[in-house]
Amino acid sequence: MFIRSGELVIILGGKIKIRHHLFKSLRLLLMVMIIISGMIPCLIIRGVVLKSNEGHIVSFKMAEIQNQCTILGNQASSSGLMSGGVSETFDAELTQFSNIYNGRVLVIDRSYKIVDDTYGTDIGKTVISGDVVRCFEGESISRYDDKNSYIEITTPIQETTSGKTVGVLLASISTDNILSIQDNLEQTIDIVVITALVVLAVLSFFASMYIMRPMNRMTKAVQSMTESYDEDYLHEETFAETKRFSEAFNKMIERFKVLDESRQEFVSNVSHELKTPITSMKVLADSLLAQEEVPAELYREFMADMSEEIERENKIINDLLSLVKMDKTTTDMNIENLNINEVVERILKRLRPIAEKQNIEVLFESFRPVEAEIDETKFSLCVSNLVENAIKYNHENGWVHVSLNADHKFFYLKVTDSGIGIPKEAQEHIFERFYRVDKSHSREIGGTGLGLAIARNSVIMHRGAIKVYSEEGEGTTFTVRMPLKYVASAK
């Protein structure tokens, strides 16, 4: 087994298996995070316990030695040692103290000379240090040197009658036994920490396996859904997160189903719509060809019918081409500063003859002159589709009201009709491609389900917004909001 370029390479039986992106595994990441989250407190507790224990032992040891040194200082004063006398009893006490605590004791007089030494090597030598000087001023000093592993206690020797400091007792005690205790404690804590980490690693393995089990089930469910949209939705409610993911995924699948059904239906409808005019034209043409002498009136009638079928075919093709153009990027936008009132007037002038066939009145109300930066072709597609739909799905002798208004930042176009309206459940789908509310009615009037999709795409490409308000049987209102200044999106 070896690692190459961030990949784990495992050699088994002469065969090489490469595990790509091993460290991108969510399960491994969970295990590492759990172990680290347990390791950090363990290491912190380890350091705190060791440091606290060391401080506690040293403090206890220093207090104990300080008491012993105070007792020895009183004995030194009473034995007459500081006045030049020799006390074998006091020497024995010093030797015993030195042996018990594995240290060295010096007795220093007022002239900073060593008058007694448990090692017996420095008697008569002079000792001058800051601790000794301060001790002659009556201050007891305790100091722990952890680097050199010793405790140093400096205690004043005072006369029992006057209380005057006549000497200093300097004790240096080895802390090797403290270090030994610390080492034993450290080994014990290390064993506990290692055991805890092993247990934590095992628990993290099973915890990650438990956490990842719903993810694995969801992965298998998603993989099984990629082939087809069946009735088996994702139902994983082990955790709140997996439940939310399942709900979101099921909504997405439901939407895909609707879009897929809409596409299939669109293909069927468009095939029928494209085939019907061709079939009609073929029948008309065959009828003309089958007759040797065709009257001019009949010939003109047949040609007029063929012209209508060609126009119907042309409309379907134009809708498809418009939608394809809308799928292109905004770099194809031909932005110009135009008078919106005039643009809308031209569109309505072209559509009024269509409305007149159904006795539908088309009204235009402009509240103020509006100039904006738009792509005229794409904006015209939006307005044409909205007004044409308002005409198509209207009642005979109905009306269509188009209004234009603006503020300092946006202009607003509203198209209201007295038509059949849109059911509540269909309003959230009407801007989807290929979607048609009344399929039979749409086929009768030549609808393809692309008009509102084209209108919405046009509005979005202008950085605008479109909304619908409708009550079934009471008419529909579409509102379009577009910025007066076009701002291209940043790449």
From TrEMBL:
<dbReference type="InterPro" id="IPR036890">
    <property type="entry name" value="HATPase_C_sf"/>
</dbReference>
<dbReference type="InterPro" id="IPR004358">
    <property type="entry name" value="Sig_transdc_His_kin-like_C"/>
</dbReference>
<dbReference type="InterPro" id="IPR005467">
    <property type="entry name" value="His_kinase_dom"/>
</dbReference>
<keyword id="KW-1133">Transmembrane helix</keyword>
<dbReference type="InterPro" id="IPR003661">
    <property type="entry name" value="HisK_dim/P_dom"/>
</dbReference>
<dbReference type="Pfam" id="PF02518">
    <property type="entry name" value="HATPase_c"/>
</dbReference>
<feature type="domain" description="Histidine kinase">
    <location>
        <begin position="269"/>
        <end position="486"/>
    </location>
</feature>
<keyword id="KW-0808">Transferase</keyword>
<dbReference type="InterPro" id="IPR036097">
    <property type="entry name" value="HisK_dim/P_sf"/>
</dbReference>
<dbReference type="Pfam" id="PF00512">
    <property type="entry name" value="HisKA"/>
</dbReference>
<feature type="transmembrane region" description="Helical">
    <location>
        <begin position="28"/>
        <end position="49"/>
    </location>
</feature>
<keyword id="KW-1003">Cell membrane</keyword>
<keyword id="KW-0902">Two-component regulatory system</keyword>
<keyword id="KW-0472">Membrane</keyword>
<keyword id="KW-0597">Phosphoprotein</keyword>
<keyword id="KW-0418">Kinase</keyword>
<dbReference type="GO" id="GO:0016301">
    <property type="term" value="F:kinase activity"/>
</dbReference>
<dbReference type="InterPro" id="IPR050351">
    <property type="entry name" value="BphY/WalK/GraS-like"/>
</dbReference>
<feature type="transmembrane region" description="Helical">
    <location>
        <begin position="191"/>
        <end position="211"/>
    </location>
</feature>
<dbReference type="InterPro" id="IPR003594">
    <property type="entry name" value="HATPase_dom"/>
</dbReference>
<protein>
    <recommendedName>
        <fullName>histidine kinase</fullName>
        <ecNumber>2.7.13.3</ecNumber>
    </recommendedName>
</protein>
<keyword id="KW-0812">Transmembrane</keyword>
<dbReference type="InterPro" id="IPR029151">
    <property type="entry name" value="Sensor-like_sf"/>
</dbReference>
